[in-house]
Amino acid sequence: MKKTNLFILLFCISFFTLFSQTYTTPNTGVNWTLGDIAANSPSTITISGINYTLLENLVISENDTVTIDSDLILSIESNLLITVFGTFTVNSNDVLITSVNQAAPYEGFRFEEFSEINIQNTTIEYGGGLRVLTETFTLNNCLISNNVEGGATTGAVISLSRGMPQITNNTISLNELAAIGSAANSSVSAYIFNNHIIGNNLLNANRPQINMGPTRVADTLKIIQNTIIGDPSVDFGGGIAVANLVGGTIKVIIDDNIIQGNRYGLTVVGPDSFAYIRNNIIEDNDIQNIPLQGGSGISLNTSSGIMEVIASGNEIRRNLWGITVIGTAAINLGDDVDNLGGNVFSENGNEGELYALYNNTTNTLLAKHNCWVEGQANTLADAEAVIFHQTDDGSLGEVIYDPVGVGCDNLSVTDFSEIDFSFYPNPAEDQINFNNVYSFTRLNIYGIQGNLILTETISEGENRLQLNLPQGLYFVNFRSENQEIVRKLLIK
Questions:
Q1: Where are the beta strands (DSSP E) in 141-177?
Q2: Per-residue pLDDT reduced to its tens digit, 310-337
Q3: Of the residues 418, 442, 463, which one is the last residue of a structural domain?
C-alpha cells in the first residue's frame, strides 16, 4: 500500500475514533456530579470556573445518578448525545445547557425507558431536543429554545413516548420542530400546564405546536392554562392537535388556554375520543388563509367510531371557521342538563360569510345558551345566520341552538386582539406609558427567544414603567385572571 493511502486510512480511523468515543458511568450505584465525571475521566468533561464542556458522548448507566445541583454552564461539542438509563436530576436555580458552537448543535438528550428525569430551572438550547422514552419525566420552569431537527428527536423538541410526564411552567420557543409531541403509536397522558409556547415549528412542517397522539386508557391527557402563539411566517403550523390515527383511545382535557395566530386553533381527530374543551380563548388562527385546508378555531374529525366532545365557556374569534365538525364527530356546546354552554363567537368566517359552527355531519348537535354574535343581544335569527347545518343542506344534521345565550350584550368579554390598547412610545428607550382601562394586574416582558425578562404588578389607570433593556424586539404580555394580550415592543 502506498504511504499516502496508508496515511489517509490511519487519519480516517483516528477521526472516526475521536468522534465516536463515549463515556459510560460505572453502573455501581454512584451519585455523581459533572465534577465527579470530570475527575474520573478528564477527556470527557473539562472545567473552568462554572463552565463545563462535554467532549464525548455521555451514557448514565441504569444504577447510577448524575445530579446538577449548582448553577453552571454546560457546553456540549457538536454531534454529541447524552443518554440516560439511570437518574438525571437538575435542581439548581440557573443552569444553561448549550452547544459549544451554535452553528453546530449537539445531538440532544435520550432518556431511556425506566430512567428517572427531573429537570428544573434550566435553559436547553442549540441541541437536537429531548427524546423521552421513560414514564418518569418532569420538566419545570425551563427555557427550551433554538433546538433543531435531526438530533435525538424528529417530530417535536420534547418527544414523549409513554406514561404521564409532567411539563409545567416552561417557555418553549423558536425551535425548528413542534414544541411537545407524541407518536401515533404511543399512549401518553401528559400534564402540560402553564407553558408559554411561541413560534415553534420553524421548519414550517404540517405540525401544530402541541402535537399529541393517543392517550392511556385509564388516564387523561391534560393541556391546561398554556399560551400558544404562532409565528406569522410559519403558515403551516397549528396550535394543538390530539389525534388517534392508528388505534387506541383519546381522553383529554383542554382548558383555559390562549391559542392565537396559528394556522388553526385546536383539533381532535379519530375514533374512541372523549374531550372536554373549556374556557379557552381561541383567536386569529387564520395565518395560512386557505379555508379548505385549515383555519378552524376548533376542528373535530373522525370517519368512524365515536367522538364525544363537551365544550363550554370558550371565546372563539376571527378564525376562518369557528367550530367545524366533520365525518361522524359530535360536540355538545350546551344542553339543559350538565353543559351550560356560554361559548362566545365573533367574526369567524371566510369569503364574505360568517361560520360560527359548521356541522358537516349527519349528527344532531346540541348548542344551547351560546352567544353567536358577540356584543349584542342575540336572537334566533342571529344564531341561524352563522350556523351551517340541516337548514342549509338537507343531508346534514340539525343544530339545536334554542335558547340562545341571555345577556350576550353585557358579557365582560372584549376583543383583545383588535382593541385600541397600546403603550407609548414604541419604539421606546427607557420607559413606556399606558392607560390600564381593562383591569390587567400583571405585565410580563419576554425576549425574542421567549425568555422571561421582567415581571411587574400593574394597577388600573395610568401607568409608567421604567425599562433598562438592550436594543431589540420584545413581547409585552398584559394579563389578569381571565384574559391576556400580547403586544410587540421595540427598544431603540
A1: 143-145, 156-163, 166-168, 171-173
A2: 999 999 999 999 999 999 999 999 998 8
A3: 418
